[in-house]
Every structure is written in structure tokens, then in C-alpha cells.
Design a protein that fits this description.
- The chain has eleven helices and 13 strands.
- Helices cover about 35% and strands about 20% of the residues.
- The strands form three sheets. Strands 1, 2, 3, 4, 5, 6, 7, 8 and 11 form a nine-stranded mixed sheet that branches. The chain has a two-stranded antiparallel sheet with strand order 9-10. A two-stranded parallel sheet has the order 12-13.
Length: about 300
């Protein structure tokens, strides 16, 4: 987000955008509370949140536009495992639920017959804050596996005993310091951690911006919110070759109605910059995110053009 705000002020020097790094849940809460004019979130608003947005955004409420696509990496630090691990959804879910406790468990070995796995205890590390990354990862566990019994939420299930840290930098840092640790994080920020290739159909797919974009392309739009909404129901159970289903779409959330022309113009201009080729190149250079497609860009431009001033 900082790359976008810096880039926007370079092309619109008279504009001022103040960004608060409060996480996806905090961003949505602040937006719905009227604290922010627009918000960034790695998870779409729920139907209940959208209904609340009608109080500040008019009858059509708020809407989402996709701002970037990123794989969520399943990343680990285990002495003796220096290459990508192959795992299916059930095994990943069992690890994060605490049902698999050592790295040489037969469920892990089954997918990695050529690796000599150490008996190191597994330490699960999760986000302590309300996080869009958590919500997307748990949605994958709940949808793609048959063994995850916990609610999909931006907050990690309290019933699971595990280590935690604030923000992406916190979980990556703690995992990097802990032999046997495993976590999930925006793939652009995992540093030197080793990662998991996820089973999709009969193959194992490593994360990449292209593989994440392929998963989104096979997904369907969310229904029942604003007519210009561009949030997606992600297909976590895809068997499309080359698709990486542990993916998040980061959204910018705007009101369909703003109280004055100045705020409406600023929101629209910032949104247009974010999805522009320049804005997407800025994000790709700063964090390695997958640029949105021309088709998504055209749709987002049309959605932004619907912004009006309340009467």
C-alpha cells in the first residue's frame, strides 16, 4: 500500500492520502465506522458488513475492486529440509490443526518419498491479529480439505494450541527463528523460508503469481451485494492444471456515494491509479504481486465510474 500512496502522490502532488497499517479487519472496521474514506483488505466484506456499509455509503453500499492477486505461501523452517515439500490439503489442514506433530509423520512422507524427513516437532505459527491472510488460508483449509472443522474467520481458531505473532513480519520472523516451525503468509514477504507445493489434481503446484492468477480466473463473482461489486468466491477445490488455490485477492473498498465531490474525486482517482498499468507495475516491483488482467482492469474502471455524491 505504501508503494501505491507514494506513487499516487507523484502523479497527483496536490492529493494527500494517509494510510494506516491496521490489517484487513481493522481497515474494514475503520471504513464501516466512518474513520476511513476507503480501505484495503485481503478479504472481501461479509454480507453483514456490506449491509452495514449502506449506513455510510448510501443504498448501494460499498463495493470492491481487485487491486492485486497474491499466493499465500505455506512456509516452514526445518533443519534438514532444504527443498520444496509436496503436500495435499488434508495433510496441510492436519498439520495446522495440531493433529500431525512431527515432520517425519507418515502423512508427510507419503507425498515426499524421496526425502529423508527429520523427527523434529512441528510448531504452528499463526497471525495474532484479525487478518485477511488468515481468512483466506482458513477458507482454503475448510474448503479444500475434508478434515478442517473450524469456522472460517480472520481470527485463528482459539481451540488450536499454537504460537502467534502480529502481522506478516511477525509470523515470518518467528518461523525463521524456530526450527520445526510452519506458517502461512503473503508469498511476497516470506524471505528465505522454504515452501510447500500444493496438490492440485494429480500434480503438485508451487506458488507463483501466474499460478495464483490462474486460480482466480476459474472463480466466480460474489452475488447479492452492490451492482458494481467485484469481489470473488475463490475456487479452492480447483483441479485446473497449474492453478495454485491458496490465494488471496486484495481489494480496495469504496463507497458508492460520498458526502462531497472532493472526497468522491479523490477516492476515484486513487482507485484508478491502483488498477492502472503504472500502479500495477509499482505493486509488482515492490512486492512481487501478480498484476490484474486487462479484463479485471476494465471492470474495475467501470465500477469506479459509478461513484457519486449523495444528495
Amino acid at each position: 500500500m505504501t508503494a501505491w500512496t507514494d506513487g499516487f502522490t507523484s502523479v497527483a502532488p496536490d492529493a494527500q492520502v494517509n494510510y494506516a497499517s491496521v490489517g484487513s479487519g481493522g481497515g474494514r472496521d475503520g471504513f464501516l465506522g466512518g474513520e476511513y474514506d476507503f480501505a484495503g483488505s485481503d478479504a472481501a466484506m461479509s454480507d453483514e458488513e456490506w449491509e452495514s456499509s449502506q449506513e455510510i455509503c448510501g443504498p448501494e453500499g460499498a463495493f470492491h475492486i481487485p487491486s492485486y492477486i497474491s499466493p499465500v505461501a505455506v512456509a516452514f523452517n526445518v533443519e534438514g529440509i532444504d527443498e520444496t515439500l509436496n503436500l495435499d490439503a488434508d495433510t496441510i489442514a492436519s498439520i495446522f490443526a495440531g493433529e500431525i506433530s512431527n515432520w517425519d509423520d507418515e502423512a508427510i512422507a507419503e507425498h515426499n518419498p524421496d526425502l529423508e524427513l527429520p523427527s523434529t516437532p512441528i510448531s504452528v505459527v499463526h497471525r495474532a491479529d484479525d487478518s485477511g491472510t488468515t481468512e483466506n488460508f482458513v477458507d482454503y483449509l475448510a474448503t479444500a480439505s475434508d478434515v478442517w472443522d473450524y469456522e472460517v474467520s480472520g481470527e485463528w481458531p482459539g481451540e488450536i494450541a499454537a504460537e502467534s505473532a502480529q502481522q506478516t513480519s511477525g509470523v515470518v520472523g518467528l518461523t525463521s527463528e524456530t526450527d520445526g516451525a510452519i506458517t502461512y503468509a503473503d508469498a511476497s514477504q516470506i524471505g528465505d523460508l522454504t515452501t510447500v507445493a500444493v496438490q492440485v489434481g494429480e500434480e503438485y503446484v508451487e506458488y507463483s503469481p501466474e499460478a495464483a492468477s490462474q486460480a482466480v480466473a476459474s472463480s466466480t463473482p460474489v452475488e447479492g451485494q452492490a451492482s458494481n461489486n467485484m469481489a470473488y468466491e475463490l475456487d479452492r477445490r480447483t483441479d485446473e492444471s497449474g492453478a495454485y488455490p491458496v490465494v488471496l485477492v486484495s481489494y480496495h473498498i469504496f463507497c458508492n456515494e460520498y458526502p462531497d465531490q472532493e472526497t468522491a474525486d479523490l477516492a476515484m482517482a486513487f482507485g484508478e491509479y491502483v488498477i492502472s498499468e503504472d500502479g500495477q507495475a509499482t505493486a509488482e516491483g515492490a512486492a512481487g504481486n501478480a498484476p490484474i488482467s486487462d479484463e479485471l482492469r476494465d471492470g474495475a474502471m467501470e465500477s469506479l465510474s459509478a461513484i457519486t455524491v449523495s444528495e
